[in-house]
Amino acid sequence: MGSAQGRAGSILARLKGGIDLSFVLGRSYVGLSIGASSVKLVELRKKSNSWMMTAYANIPVEEILSDQREVVNAANVVFAIQEALSASKVRAKEVCSSLVGSGVIIKNITISVNNKKELEDQVYWEAEQYIPFDINDVAIDYQTIRETKKNEFEVVVVAVKNDYIDQYLGVIEDAGLQTRVMDVEVFALQNCFESNYTVPPNEAVLIADIGAMSTKVTICADGAPLFTKDAPYGGINVTNEIQRELKLPTFVDAETLKISETLPQEVAEIVSRMCHVLGTELKRSIDFYNASNLGPPVSAVYLSGGGSRAQGMIPIVQEYVGVPVQIVNPFERIQGDPKKMSQEYLDSIAPEAVIPIGLAIRARDKT
Ligand SMILES: Nc1ncnc2c1ncn2[C@@H]1O[C@H](COP(=O)(O)OP(=O)(O)OP(=O)(O)O)[C@@H](O)[C@H]1O
Ligand SMILES: [Mg+2]
Fold this sequence. Notes:
Layout: H1 4-8, E1 28-34, E2 38-47, E3 50-60, H2 74-88, E4 94-99, E5 104-112, H3 119-130, E6 138-149, E7 152-161, H4 162-174, E8 178-184, H5 185-196, E9 204-210, E10 215-221, E11 224-231, H6 235-245, H7 251-258, H8 265-291, E12 298-304, H9 313-321, E13 325-327, E14 335-336, H10 343-365
Parallel strand pairs: 1-4, 3-14, 4-8, 9-12, 12-13
Antiparallel strand pairs: 1-2, 2-3, 5-7, 6-7, 9-10, 10-11
Helix pairs in contact: 2-4, 5-10, 6-7, 6-8, 8-9
The structure holds adenosine-5'-triphosphate (ATP) and magnesium ion.
């Protein structure tokens, strides 16, 4: 395991394409997302110019993370990663994994310098002002988004608490794997989206992954993340409300009711409330983005994550955001291995597979 600074160099997703000379045909790339409700593993292979998903596993977990996403049950996380490896029959030993939550700070800042060489020093100096943790306790990385005018650069800075990185690296290592890249979930979301869709450079899209514990939001245009947010609201909040309002004995009872095909009226109302909360949240993000003149107008909203399956989600969110809303299809351009995966199977896993696919793509970027 490298030093904190060494690891810092690999936190950030590559935001713009570049020439990759290290492409090895047939090599596999593995993405691992440790989520609040499940551990997901994806293996991709590059086939001429396109991607093929050759393995996928989604292993449910319970209460492995605290509300702040600290790993509170390491043994169960290790077990779930090993289960995912054996269920998917993935033999690779290196993965790209991700972090999200209050231990991760992502900030776009504009920096003026006399010449580009000064940029790095200046970024670290300026970043200190935005980081609510002791600078000695965090790993910092940044990526230049664009030169706004001569010698003025917009950069996205990522700071992650070292002890938080160590917890995740630790469970991955204990499961017998090495972390090649530690990415941030919103960048994985963007990476997967951009590998499947083309958006004109003068338009922005909002992509939101509605998970169990939080909703990861990014507004991006022309390959650059212009606004990002981790809203602490997801499927667990809804299940808790169902359990409380219907006075059900366990969380699992409420979860089973929530994801059933026909929802009892009271449950449907609670789920619909969730859709309104998310619609409000996404509208607020777009309003902030517009008011701050962060980039071109948002022309569409894309949703992913298990929470995007909630009944009524698309029309309700659309009422709030006023632009077309659809579910991200990670298999728009990425193929599933036809020997192992039917179209029906791919459709059934799509929303939850988006972030781990983005991570696997990123694993190749770093080769
Ligand atoms: N049909 C459905 N209706 C409503 N919610 C659903 C449905 N199916 C799954 N979900 C919810 O999706 C959530 C799981 O989604 P996902 O796997 O993307 O989350 P996660 O990655 O574990 O969480 P996080 O990203 O916050 O760490 C659960 O809260 C689950 O209840
Ligand atoms: Mg998730």
